[in-house]
Amino acid sequence: MATATDVRRIARGLPHAVEIDSDGFDFRVGNKGFIWSYPERRPGRSRVIRTDIAVLYVGDEAEKQALLLGEPDVFSAPPGWDGWPYVLLRLEEVDVTRLRELITDAWRMRAPAGLPEDA
């Protein structure tokens, strides 16, 4: 079971990753987000930052659909996210090894071309 602490540790270890000040976690590389806390919105209520659920950049719709269909207990997408290359990741449903893979892949897709992975 992964946690927000694991997200921070992994993301902070990636070259040129920057954590944006927030109520949860919010990581970017080259000014592009690759993983952040889910800002849950419910009608008639204030937004709640969920650190047990991450928004993860996945690159494209094909990858998004593969994750959603292949692991529906792990990944989801709220209504209105059609066409957006993001999924919700339930941290409690992945181990740290898998989380590291997911975060690193998201970082690679968002990092500027030519950025070394071992800075």
Task: Characterize the structure shown.
- This protein is of the alpha+beta class and 119 residues long.
- The protein has a single domain (4-110), classed as Aspartate Aminotransferase, domain 1.
- Helices cover 29% and strands 27% of the residues.
- Strands 1-2-3-4-6-5 form a 6-stranded antiparallel sheet.
- β1 (18-19) and β2 form a beta hairpin.
- It is globular.
- It starts with a helix and ends in a 9-residue tail after the last helix.
- The model has no long low-confidence stretch (mean pLDDT 94).
Uncertain runs are none
> Taking all residues together, what is the mean pLDDT?
94
- Quickly name the level 1 CATH class: Alpha Beta
User: How widely separated are the two ends?
Assistant: 28 Å
- DSSP helix fraction: 25-40%
Number of strands: 6
Number of domains: 1
Q: Biggest β-sheet: count, sense, barrel?
A: 6 strands, antiparallel
**Tally of alpha and pi helices:** 3
CATH topology: Aspartate Aminotransferase, domain 1
Q: What coarse outline follows from CA principal-axis ratios?
A: globular
Structural class determined from secondary elements? alpha+beta
Q: Order of strands across the widest beta sheet? A: 1-2-3-4-6-5
Strand content: 25-35%
Architecture per CATH nomenclature, i.e. the level-2 architecture: Alpha-Beta Complex
- Spell out the helices and strands N to C: HEEEEHEEH
What gyration radius follows from the Cα positions, in whole Å? 14 Å
